[in-house]
Amino acid sequence: MKAVNAKKQRKHPPDYREGYREGYRLGLCEAVKRLNSPEVESRRAIKIMYVPQGFQAIDTGITEALQQLVTELVISAPETMLEVAAREMPDAVLVMNGLHVFPSNHLEQISEIRKLGIPTAIWFADDPYFTEDTSEICKSYDHVFTHELGCLEFYRSLGAISVHYLPLCVNPQMFYPRRTGPQYQYDIVFIGNAFRNRTELFDALTPYLLGKKVLIAGGFWERLSCYEQLSPFIKDGFIPPEETANYYSGAKLVINIHRPWEGGMDNRNTFQLPSRSINPRTYEISACGTMQLTDVREDLGSLYRPGVDLETFASGEELQEKIDYYLKHEQERRKIALQGLKTTLSRHTFTSRLPYLLNVIMTRT
Question: Strand 311-312's sheet: what is its strand order?
Fold first, then answer.
């Protein structure tokens, strides 16, 4: 009898159930991945030259996708675009963003490349936050792609002829569900810089967050009015994409707050174009098989289904209510996360996005 009682009283360590739940979640994510592997079309017999911006997640995604979609890929640094294009004579040149790290003779190089008879295309990934610069850049390319709905007519009005809406997407080889250590496991995660709309939201949430396991990572979070209270949660500085994916995978909930577009709010949006499109973080969170809570942009509903693939909020009060609800309802949280993963893999990878771009730039006009 004593042996039986001892057996009944024996308990698993506290982390046993957490480990079981995590293993179960990852098993479900793996099943979703196997059933929704992105289809890759046959390689096109063309040579593409790609000029990266320095956004590791995007540049790696584009490079790996193009390696699957075209027979020959040439990579060039921004400083040597003309030299490489003249030597390699690609069928087309694709430039990512054209900002920040590009040299002062960027547009002169593009002009000379076009004189060689090589079509040029640019994909703006920072719209509309740098319209002071992109308003000039757009005029120099044969084809302009932007993820931002609000910039389509703007670029056309400036004289760009071939302007196309091309939403951003994700590299599922970099952002995917993975087993993480305890250092990456949180109730609530937000990764991004402390733009003012974000600090206002977190200041309002402070009393609620103090009782949770929270990570806030990025720069300038000393702007918080409640910085002293929230400082134990803050990891200062840039988080590389691979580590970001670890935090996303280890979180129960990830918050997504888009940056402000208004003038004077940490941007160069001189033309004051409202931002209407979702950010790359939207795709990256969902690709990690984690549920996200995001504020709303106009094109969100055409890319994801609110309440099915992810959840949305319009105020700090609504965000707090939904955080509280989904932390307490694991099964519902998991269901939405898995739907978000499924939609992302089936619709929003670089191998599914880039064929449209290639169709446009390889159509001779």
Answer: 234-236, 214-218, 186-191, 251-256, 291-294, 311-312
**CA 136 to CA 47: how far, in whole Å?**
28
Residue 36 to residues 32, 58, 147: CA-CA distances in angstroms? 6, 21, 24
Q: What stretches in the chain show pLDDT beneath 50?
A: 1-12, 365
Over residues 292-330, the pLDDT tens digits come to 999 999 999 999 999 999 999 999 999 999 999 999 999
Backbone angles phi, psi at 241, to 5 degrees: -55, -45
Helices (H), the chain: 2-9, 15-35, 56-69, 81-88, 106-115, 131-137, 152-157, 196-209, 227-230, 241-250, 280-287, 300-303, 316-328, 330-347, 350-361
Pick the closest to residue 279 from 265, 300, 302 (CA basis).
Answer: 300
3-class SS of residue 283: helix
How many Cβ atoms from other residues are within 10 Å of residue 233's Cβ?
A: 21
89 in Cβ contact with 19 (< 8 Å): no
Question: What's the rounded Cα separation, in Å, for the pair 298 and 165?
Answer: 13
How do beta strands 120-124 and 162-165 pair? unpaired
Residues 6+ apart with CB under 8 A from 234: 216, 217, 221, 227
Report CA torsion sign: 274, 278, 280, 285.
Answer: positive
Q: How close are the terminal C-alpha atoms of the chain, in Å?
A: 88
Q: Model pTM?
A: 0.93
